[in-house]
Write a structure and sequence with these properties.
Layout lengths: L1 H14 L5 H16 L2 H20 L1 H16 L1 H18 L6 E2 H13 L2 H4 L6 H18 L7 E2 L1 H14 L2 H9 L10 H16 L3
Antiparallel strand pairs: 1-2
Helix pairs in contact: 1-2, 2-3, 3-5, 5-6, 5-9, 5-10, 6-8, 8-9, 8-10, 9-11, 10-11
Length: 209
């Protein structure tokens, strides 16, 4: 099934959007390296590979249109770095979904995922709106985990709850970045991130994890 999906993606890029071939190939190479690499590779590099793939997906369209350097000039390095760190910390936490983890370790990862938008807010020309959105984002991530902050051990159910919550809130990270550094876009486009998060939350209630 993977070969069919990956082959279809390559064929679409070759025949329909040739400019996307390089970026598509890069994404598929990361996926292949993770899926067909050794267990040692997945253990050592799994979270990093996932974060690179997610960040590349976020920048896919601007990279295809403007090239990587042009995309980073338009979006800035901060949003890409924030998105990368968010998924890396989340992937580290997700490793413990099937087994318990130390409470301080789990809560620290939740805190780190909540703090990553600071990378874009710190350099925002008008940070007030982005900072307000970030505080709400922090509350959504941290408040549910706070009662377990001092627990010695987090069972898998607690870890799974935190991971699912963070997955659903992931669209808010680029939305906060857009509020902080809108560039040529109107900040109202940031509502797309909030709308996506609401849709993900609704689907999570009816679909199995």
């Amino acid at each position: 099934a993977l070969i069919i999906l990956w082959g279809g993606a390559l064929l679409l890029a070759v025949f329909l959007v040739p400019a996307a071939l390089r970026t598509t190939g890069f994404l598929l190479a990361i996926a292949a390296f993770y899926n067909f690499g050794s267990a040692r590779v997945r253990t050592a590099l799994g979270p990093t590979l996932l974060a690179v793939a997610r960040t590349t997906s976020l920048l896919f369209v601007p990279t295809v249109v403007f090239g990587l350097n042009g995309a980073l000039e338009r979006t800035g390095l901060g949003p890409a770095a924030a998105y990368f760190l968010y998924w890396m910390f989340l992937a580290r936490l997700a490793r413990h979904e099937e087994r318990s983890t130390a409470g301080p370790f789990g809560f620290t990862l939740v805190l780190l995922t909540a703090l990553v938008p600071v990378a874009v807010i710190a350099h925002a020309p008008t940070p007030l709106l982005a900072a307000a959105a970030w505080l709400a984002f922090c509350a959504l991530l941290i408040v549910p985990a706070w009662p377990h902050a001092r627990s010695r051990v987090w069972p898998p159910s607690w870890v799974q709850a935190c991971v699912r919550r963070a997955l659903g809130l992931a669209p808010l990270v680029p939305a906060i970045a857009l509020l902080a550094q809108p560039g040529d876009l109107h900040p109202v486009w940031a509502l797309g991130g909030a709308a996506t998060a609401l849709v993900v939350r609704a689907l999570a209630r009816v679909l199995p994890p």
